């Protein structure tokens, strides 16, 4: 299976960072901390952010979705899992914006969402560490703790035989990360920036995981909506390597992911 470049803000370790990221990401030269998910290469967030910085120094504060108070669990466990992933992704964006207030809200929200999923105890220390590091404006430590929170959630869910929910956490993070990426690329479109969205293998991965969910999850209206959104994005992200992703496609992906994030955070079924 061909390796694909993927933006997945909550599916990877961020303890090491490239000092001088290249103007173009060469998948074959990704750092050792990049992870493989079923043959999908997932680079560290700093790789993505570094490339975007070289393409035009984005204003991350304009990409944020400000969190007022602490995010409250909404709906059934699939929705809460998607919310948790999107909130952790929001944490990485807040770090890039160096927004200590938002990072602290996100740390509290991570704990608040992890608890009803049965993994609150596993992330309690991480949530406090996120807050403490934000107070010190130690952004590298915040990144490490966000990543650690994700790893703790995934390991705890595996012990609870909740791999499906763990995959939804990753998917929620990917949706929010992709929304942020398309917002940045859309503000100042370049082919190199749009190429970061070329991730067909990752979309295939998510499609298969959604299709293989247990019936009790698949009947959830939100899951149906997310599945439809992933299918709509699939042809827009470049089916072959020789096709550029157009500015119109970037805008359409942003619209789809924005609608999905609104649905994920909605109290309506």
Q: Could you explain the architecture of this structure?
A:
Strand 1 and strand 2 form a beta hairpin. Strands 1-2 form a two-stranded antiparallel ribbon. The protein has one domain. It is built from 11 helices and 2 strands. Helices cover 60% and strands 2% of the residues.
Summarize the structure in short.
This protein has 269 residues and is mostly helical. It has helices spanning 45-56, 77-96, 100-114, 120-136, 139-159, 163-187, 191-195, 200-211, 215-218, 221-233, 247-264, and strands at 35-37, 40-42. The chain has a two-stranded antiparallel sheet with strand order 1-2.
Mean pLDDT score? 80
Biggest sheet character: 2 strands, antiparallel
The helix content is 55-70%
Query: In percent terms, what proportion of residues is strand?
Result: under 5%
Q: Unreliable segments (pLDDT under 50, ≥5 consecutive)?
A: 1-44
Distance between the termini: 37 Å
Overall geometry: globular
- Please give the radius of gyration in angstroms: 17 Å
Strand order, sheet with most strands: 1-2
SS-based class: mainly alpha
Number of domains: 1
What is the number of strand segments? Answer: 2
Order of helices and strands: EEHHHHHHHHHHH
Q: Helix segment count?
A: 11
Task: Compile the SSE list and pairings.
Elements: E1 35-37, E2 40-42, H1 45-56, H2 77-96, H3 100-114, H4 120-136, H5 139-159, H6 163-187, H7 191-195, H8 200-211, H9 215-218, H10 221-233, H11 247-264
Antiparallel strand pairs: 1-2
Helix pairs in contact: 2-3, 2-5, 2-6, 3-4, 3-5, 4-5, 6-11, 8-10, 10-11
Which features characterize this protein?
2 strands; 269 residues; two-stranded antiparallel ribbon; mainly alpha; single chain; disordered N terminus; globular
């Amino acid at each position: 299976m061909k390796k694909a470049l993927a933006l997945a803000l909550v599916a990877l370790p961020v303890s090491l960072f490239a000092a001088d990221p290249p103007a173009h990401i060469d998948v074959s030269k990704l750092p050792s901390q990049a992870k493989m998910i079923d043959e999908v290469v997932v680079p560290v967030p700093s790789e993505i952010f570094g490339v975007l910085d070289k393409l035009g120094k984005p204003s991350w504060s304009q990409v944020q979705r400000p969190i007022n108070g602490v995010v409250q669990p909404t709906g059934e466990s699939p929705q809460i899992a998607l919310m948790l992933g999107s909130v952790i992704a929001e944490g990485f964006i807040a770090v890039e914006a160096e927004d200590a207030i938002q990072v602290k809200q996100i740390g509290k929200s991570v704990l608040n969402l992890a608890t009803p999923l049965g993994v609150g105890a596993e992330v309690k220390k991480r949530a406090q560490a996120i807050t403490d590091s934000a107070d010190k404006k130690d952004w590298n430590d915040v990144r490490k703790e966000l990543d650690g929170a994700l790893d703790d959630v995934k390991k705890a869910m595996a012990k609870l035989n909740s791999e499906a929910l763990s995959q939804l956490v990753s998917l929620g993070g990917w949706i929010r990360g992709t929304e942020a990426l398309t917002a940045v690329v859309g503000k100042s479109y370049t082919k190199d920036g749009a190429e970061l969205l070329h991730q067909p293998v990752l979309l295939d991965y998510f499609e298969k995981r959604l299709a293989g969910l247990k019936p009790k999850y698949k009947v959830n209206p939100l899951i149906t909506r997310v599945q439809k959104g992933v299918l709509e994005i699939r042809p827009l992200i470049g089916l072959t390597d020789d096709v550029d992703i157009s500015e119109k496609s970037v805008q359409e992906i942003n619209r789809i992911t924005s609608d999905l994030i609104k649905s994920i955070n909605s109290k309506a079924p």
